[in-house]
Amino acid sequence: MSLITIEHNPSEERLKELGVAGWPTWEKEISNFQIAFDETETAYLLEGEIIVTPVDGEPVRILAGDLVVFPEGLNSLWEVVKPLRKHYYVPSLSKSLKFHIRSFLFRNFPLKSMAIFRFLK
Length: 121
Known about the structure:
It is a single chain. About 25% of the residues lie in helices and about 45% in strands. By secondary structure, the chain is of the alpha+beta class. It has 2 domains: about 5-90, Jelly Rolls; about 90-120. A hairpin with a 5-residue loop joins strand 4 and strand 5 (about 60-65). The chain is globular and about 45 Å long.
């Protein structure tokens, strides 16, 4: 299993390239909990600080402004040190959203949707 990867303070160009501004947002108060990732998640921390400790691994401190990848299969303990607000991307969620957007457009705007479908591939 690969490790957590962190890109500190990625450029605005990099964030735009990834489409981070369009990702869903998740918030969490100061707390401790365990989480297992059944698929890879990429996240960009807008606010806060967390310490993520992989089971049988070393703690990793993640701060606001960090772009982080949590690999599929990671089982970890999270300590939210400062209230957390992050954008996150999970491939299966993206596929599901694209399907629902395409369905909505096709039902409501069948002729105009063809150009948009190419964009949503």
